Amino acid sequence: MAHEHVRARRGAAVTLVCLGAFGLAVSLLKALTWDGAEPVTTGACVVERIVVGYDIGYVPELGGYGVTTAALSDVPDGCAGREVAVTLHGADDQPLAEARTPVTAPTTTVDMGGTVAVTDLGGVSLALVTDEPVRPR
What we know:
There is one protein chain. By secondary structure, the protein is of the alpha+beta class. It is built from one helix and six strands, in the order H-E-E-E-E-E-E. The chain has a three-stranded antiparallel sheet, with no helix packed on it. The chain has a three-stranded antiparallel sheet with strand order 4-3-6, with no helix packed on it. The chain starts with a helix and ends in a 9-residue tail after the last strand.
């Protein structure tokens, strides 16, 4: 009788291991095939969906062309009213300038002050500074 009890426990353990392995395989498969193109929940703020463009103009203080504004487009409705930080980076990923502003959907213009020369620009990053909409003071 004790032998049957050991066999039943072994069978249960093997079943649990198989189910665990199957669950891990399914979750890994989902992670490997996710492309970020899934629909966004209504009201969600997904920063990765925001497209960033630059406006460039002649800046006398730089003696050349600089980034005057950053233009955010395709801003999800759920981001409206939240504060965003836009950081311009150099080629070595060193931050060169940052500006913050409340976001408006579907587009937002961020004044970058023209302090970064176009020749120094290597990239841009966005970060939500607030989780909730900013209330006017």
